[in-house]
Design a protein that fits this description.
About 30% of the residues lie in helices and about 35% in strands. The protein is α+β, with helices and mostly antiparallel strands. Strands 2-3-1-4 form a four-stranded antiparallel sheet, covered by helices on one side.
């Protein structure tokens, strides 16, 4: 599964997102916007069912001001 997220740059948001994706195979890459106000994360993780994907989306949606692309 690959998930792209954007949010206003705050360290706690990246930490909150990383805690959701606890699978050992998870890879998270980060990129700052040109102005430095925003950060985007790309999360790659292993899932075995469609329900797991939906669960991840639901968990991330609980984090305020995170946009899932």
């Amino acid at each position: 599964m690959r998930l792209n997220l954007s949010y206003r740059r705050e360290k706690t948001k990246a930490e909150d997102i990383a805690q959701i994706f606890a699978h050992p195979s998870t890879q998270i890459s980060s990129k700052d916007s040109k102005t430095g106000k925003y950060n985007s994360l790309t999360v790659k993780t292993y899932v075995t069912t469609a329900d797991e994907v939906i669960d991840y989306y639901k968990k991330v949606s609980l984090i305020e001001k995170v946009i899932m692309l």
